[in-house]
Amino acid sequence: MTVAVRPGKPEGPMTQTRAEAGIEEAVGERMVIRFATARCIHARNCVLGLPGVFKANVEGAWIDPDAASPEAIVAAALNCPSGAITYARRDGGAAEAPPAVNLARVRENGPLALHGALSLGGEAIGTRTTLCRCGASANKPFCDGSHVAAGFAATGEPASKESKPLAARDGTLAITAHADGPLQIAGALEIVSGTGRTITRTTEAWLCRCGHSANKPYCDGSHQAAGFRAPAA
Questions:
Q1: Is the pLDDT of residue 174 over 90?
Q2: What pTM was computed for the model?
Q3: Sheet of strand 23-27: strand arrangement
Q4: Contacts of 27 (CB under 8 A, 6+ apart)
Q5: 3-state DSSP helix/strand/coil percent for the chain, to nearest 5?
Q6: CA 80, 76, 90, 15: dihedral to nearest 10 degrees?
Q7: Are 16 and 24 in contact (CB under 8 A)?
Q8: In terms of CB atoms within 10 Å, which of 28, 48, 218, 219 comes out highest?
């Protein structure tokens, strides 16, 4: 995601605006924090980790980029699995970079959390995202937290498969959400359990997003019998 930084110093200790695209932007002396509402899965890592910066249950402006060091804010942003929180440094610090190892983390009873140089349908979407695997999200292919109300049950600890180490572990991860079908992910990828155990290493994966596969997180074709409907992306 490209983050626009306003030139010069902000007016006052903090200026916050809401963009038309559903993105809130908070501009501080050293940092710009952006929050994409539609991407948030309410993991709450931000409000629990930096409650002075990300203020829960307040009226009006709730993000204060001057309430912690840039390094602490960077750490909090990187701990946001959905990519809802991004940042730009105004102090000359480095921008967020893709990880050295591309990961897809299988979250217990929840989404797939991807970390890498991500593209969706040929468009760059940043380095972090959570993709629906319950089939109930109203914001497909992204997770919107609907798995909770839907009572989705799927292990975050699938059995490991035999796989060899990849020659390259980084690079672009190209995501394709097939119409009424699975997620196709092309690129070097390590799929890991919720506890970090390696499930498999691959350069192409077809992952269930209808919630009906008997071989989760992989697609087994169950979307056809289930009558799953979702647009391509």
A1: yes
A2: 0.88
A3: 15-18, 23-27, 31-36, 85-89
A4: 5, 6, 10, 14, 15, 16, 65
A5: 10, 30, 60
A6: 80
A7: yes
A8: 28
Cα radius of gyration (the chain)? 18
Q: What is the pLDDT of residues 52-89, one digit of tens each?
A: 999 999 988 899 999 999 999 999 999 999 999 999 99
pLDDT bucket at 227, cuts 50 / 70 / 90: very high
Query: Which residue shows structure tokens 């991860």?
Result: 173
Which amino acid, 13?
P
Spatial separation of the C-alpha atoms in residues 135 and 212, rounded to whole Å: 8
Token code pair at residue 7: 């030139």
Amino acid of residue 2: T
